[in-house]
Amino acid sequence: MELHLSAPSRFSPVFSVPGLSFNLSKPRSLCIGSCSCFSRGQSLIPKPQLNPKTITPVPDPREEEEVEMEDGDEGFQKAAASQGICGQIEKLVFFKRYKEALELFEILQLRGGRSAVGASTYDSLVTACIGLSYSGFLDEGIEIFESMSRDSKMKPRAMHYACMIELLGREGLLDEALELIRDAPFSPTTNMWAALLTACRIHKNLELGKFAAEKLFGMEPEKLSNYIVLLNIYNSCGRAADGAKVLEALKKKGLRLLPACTWIEVKKQPHRFIFGDKSHPESIKIYERLDNLIKEMVKQGYAPMEKHLLPDVGQHEQRMLNYHSEKLAVAYGLISTQDYTPLHLVQGHRICSDCHSAIKLITLITKREIVVRDASRFHHFKHGSCSCGDYW
Predict the structure, then answer these.
(1) Residues 14 and 165: beta-carbon distance below 8 Å
(2) What order of strands is seen across the sheet that includes strand 269-274?
(3) What distance in Å separates the CA atoms of residue 276 and residue 287, rounded to the nearest whole number?
(4) Dist. CA 328–CA 271, nearest whole Å
């Protein structure tokens, strides 16, 4: 059986917390915004260096103009206050040009315009931090988190805490993430605990994962995804018996595990696949292409991640791990489109770890780009890697 979960969405901005201290050395810059948990659906494209006096806006159908900065800090503050600079930061983040957004924010700070930064710009900055967290932008994220209340006098909201928890979680700083939750000046929200639970899944921290899951069970007892994350933590830690208990608890609550579905559009026609699906008219060709792909993937070191299966599946279902809906959709896309054509998939749940690893290898073998939109974020697979940095 293919198991997925719907992940809580991630957010943006960051603020400072009085009395919060992280034992982190070597802060790298004043800009933190680009370090958050926004998924990078497309790769970053190198762009020209930003000029502190002349900033070319990201193309916008409503306005094509250049923002000319007056000499001196006062002129810069006026431009920032009029949303000229802040607007450009938000546009850069929207188009996933995160590093440039941070560079521009650093210029803004150095020129004394940070007091003009509003909540929406901070939202964009934190989004950028999450987008660049794979490149080690944690310190920048912390600085932006702190600068919000310090420089702009904004109180942090739950969404900002959730972003910061994800940033810390990406770096494996789970104790610091828990400290941040406990120090919040309000009752922790489900999104904050869910961000911690996801980090525990990635880093296989069973004890803290159980603690976060229990908090979520009390707050939203019928939300299936929380149970599935805990089950996957048990399985990845070799605790299949405990995973079986979670599955039994689901059955007692009357919660059903529904099969995941994946859609792909070819020639303007949508095609839907489920686990082990053989209903498609071209099933024979699909399975033949997928089996050949798997042989190539094995040569590259691929091995199915059986630990992520349910504890009560048999050997037949373990073999069927190769035929998850995502893999079937990819195989169909490969046989139905010309070479080098990008493939675009939509997955109704969260993509599983095995399919995530498999699709990375498939992009290497086929020289294709594959974009998967799952319940968590966009995954842009290219040259054997994913835009999410293997954190979702």
Answers:
(1) no
(2) 269-274, 261-266, 343-347, 370-373, 378-382, 385-386
(3) 10
(4) 10
Neighbour-count burial of 135, counting CB atoms closer than 10 A to its CB (0-12 exposed, 13-18 middle, 19+ buried): middle
Question: Residue 180 has which token pair?
Answer: 């941040």
Cα 141 from Cα 287, distance rounded (Å): 45
Query: Tens digits of per-residue pLDDT, 45-100?
Result: 334 344 444 444 444 433 333 334 444 445 444 444 445 788 888 888 888 788 88
Contact 325, 274 (CB under 8 A): yes
Query: What pairs with residue 347 in β-bridges?
Result: 262
Please tell me the distance from the alpha carbon of residue 196 to that of residue 85, in angstroms, as a whole number: 34
pTM for the model: 0.68
Q: How far apart are CA 122 and CA 144, in angstroms?
A: 8
List 271's β-bridge partners, or say none.
264
Q: What is the pLDDT of residues 128-149, one digit of tens each?
A: 887 776 666 888 888 888 888 8
What is the C-alpha to C-alpha distance for residues 211 and 197, in angstroms, rounded to an integer?
Answer: 9
Residue 201: exposure state from Cβ atoms within 10 A (0-12, 13-18, ≥19): buried
State the DSSP code for 323.
G
Which residues neighbour 291 within 8 Å (Cβ) at sequence distance 6 or greater? 322
